[in-house]
Write a structure and sequence with these properties.
Mean pLDDT: 74
Radius of gyration: 64 Å
Number of strands: 6
Shape: rod-shaped
Number of helices: 7
Helix content: 25-40%
Structural class: alpha+beta
Distance between the termini: 140 Å
Strand content: 5-15%
CATH architecture of the domain at 135-243: 2-Layer Sandwich
Length: 245
């Protein structure tokens, strides 16, 4: 520091000397005084305001779309001012900048008609089955019925289904040599799906009852004991299957 001050003083002295010898005396005196005052002010300013240390100043990114102009003054050393980069993500929109768009909805009439809810239509009724054939006429003079014991009473009970409901059709009372609609106190009840009744004629009565039994669409109900039933119908050993026995 002392060496640099000595060199600076010598340079100032040389300049002052050359000015003194090349100017008039009054001008030389005035220039000498001004130069001395300037030198004193410069030294005083250096003492009061020493040069600031080197401070890192971030430079704007080379990819920035708008480089800083060279004429702009450098930012203050105490404030870090990063410049936006073109590769940085866009700033998020703040809540104050969001302007919600109202959803469009049709204009509603404040005066509306009452809505009348119609009850659901009832399901269509199932088709009515055709009437059953009159077995008292179909089986008149049938050989199987004619071979029954004199005091035998068998009740034939057809049925059908309406959905899941079982509906009974007209019953028939079968005795030796006769069959008629009705009900009575019987020895045995033969319960059969009426789909098989439509197939019965005078010649195939036994075959239709056996078919219904084999297809699990027939069952029997004994109203007397099995022993009494076997003894009473012992004469029909080869024809008991015609009544499900």
């Amino acid at each position: 520091m002392d060496k640099r001050g000595a060199i600076l003083g010598a340079m100032i002295f040389a300049i002052i000397a050359s000015m003194i010898f090349s100017m008039p005396f009054s001008v030389k005196i005035e220039s000498f005084l001004n130069s001395s005052l300037s030198h004193l002010n410069f030294s005083k300013q250096n003492v009061q305001n020493p040069p600031s240390p080197n401070v890192f100043e971030p430079q704007p990114n080379s990819a920035s779309s708008t480089p800083a102009a060279s004429s702009n003054p450098p930012p203050s050393p105490s404030v870090f001012t990063p410049q936006p980069s073109s590769s940085s993500p866009p700033a998020q929109q703040t809540s104050a900048q969001i302007t919600p768009t109202p959803a469009t909805s049709p204009i509603q009439n404040p005066i509306t008609k009452p809505v009348i809810v119609q009850p659901p239509a009832a399901p269509p009724a199932p088709p009515t089955p055709p009437p059953l054939p009159d077995l008292s006429k179909v089986l008149a003079g049938n050989n199987i019925i004619a071979s029954l014991p004199n005091n035998a009473v068998i009740l034939l009970k057809p049925y059908h289904y309406n959905g899941k409901t079982q509906i009974w059709d007209d019953s028939y009372v079968i005795k030796k040599g006769s069959i008629a609609k009705g009900t009575a106190s019987a020895d045995l009840g033969v319960i059969v799906d009426d789909a098989y009744v439509y197939q019965i004629n005078n010649q195939n009565f036994c075959d239709i009852i056996k078919k219904a039994n084999s297809e699990s669409n027939m069952r029997t109900e004994a109203y007397i004991s099995q022993l009494a039933l076997m003894w009473k119908y012992r004469s029909m050993m080869g024809q008991k299957a015609c009544f499900g026995m």
